[in-house]
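Troubleshooting: if your tokenizer reports a length mismatch, compare your output against this known-good record of 477 residues.
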Amino acid sequence: MRLRLFKYGTIAVAWAAMALLVQTPLSGQDKIHAAQLALQGRVNDAHGAPISGASVSLAQNGDFDPAETADVKTDSNGKFIFPTSKPGTYLLRVRKNGFNEVVQTLALPFVQQKSCEVVLTPSASHARGSADAMQFSDDSNFTIAGITDWTAAGGHGSDINLRTSESLARDTRTLEIPTVQRAQTPTKEQLQSQRDELQSKVARNDTADLHRYLGDVDEQLNDPLAAEREYEHATQLDPSEQNYFAWATELLLHRAIGPAQQVFTRGVNAYPQSERMLAGLGAALYASGLYVQASERLCEASDLKPNDSPPYLFLGKMLQASAQLQACAEEKLARFSRNQPTNPFANFYYALALWKRAGASHPQADQTESLLNKAIAANPKFAEAYLQLGILYAAEGRAAETIAAYERAVSVNPNFAEAHFRLAQAYKKSGEAEKAQHEFQTYEQLQKSQAAAVDQQRREIQQFVVVFKDQENNSGN
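Known-good structure output:
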């Protein structure tokens, strides 16, 4: 039997990207470079056959405005190509009648030339849209076939959406009630001893709790494949809220995004009052590129226990990475600020929501400034709040205050690359060329080192390889 294995991205996507890069240095002390780029790739079905006539769109800032969005059709070989002159983060959208739409985040330029393959799946098997519309049988339609190194397909270290997705996955993990005491980090020998003891207990009394405990230990032993199987077995034995959540979180953490979305959805259907299940589903939807649906799930989660922080914090992180304000975000973050007036994040995220809606031109600009100052008063080392305050001052033409805010941001966090970049721009505008040059150089150094660190972390991630059972059953000999 021949099986086709997929790394799961947006919708059963085997993904990389190709960018041809020719850099032309610009004059000026900031050493910023322009690039001539071309993105090319191919659209296939799940069996590798090319799909012609698919509509492929490329847009920046998450905005597929027809007046500004590039749009091409795939040729008879399923191929497409985009010329573009702007480096940055893009959304690639692929559509074809009868197939699920795929939206993938990527960043140009790429460090190396790679191929780009997008796999479309029939819409009858995976209905795109609200997670509430998804229906699943008691048996999962996927299996975890193995693990592989994750190459961060579709993005690199500077991709803000990808970084946010990774951060949300880690945050989801912290919502799990720990079943193995971790007051002190156990040694490998201690963990192995715990595993042996638990396996001995399972042999005498096969219970869901013991399998979940085994999953916890296996994950700490850096054996996520064994952990996922234990969590799945625990859920089969006892489909409790805790077991659903542990299994789904393990899938999400190791980038099996579609399966995580499925399990979280089943958990939400079984336990609609579970705040953390809705939050986890929101994180999985965000990782799938379904940003509106992700925000809606987090808004719903915040309504279940309005005084709990996690759903608001998830929503705030999504807001930071988004160019647009999602419909329900401002209302919920306003409530977060009212309920927790001394919480720096409550004030910061509500200020950010107000700013993204209208900016400095809105009558509530004074309220935005007040909220940012409240966030700083609650946490004087809140670098992001100083940065946003500087952005507000810059929009209002308050040059001296702009520089002071950015200087404070880099003072409390010297590794804050964006703050160095904006400070460099502010210095340059004020005629302080030497200071601007220093900040631009610091920014470039931080960008390179941080992107390299993120890419190294991603290479160390053990990503699950997913086989979908309908593909397995129809995969040929």
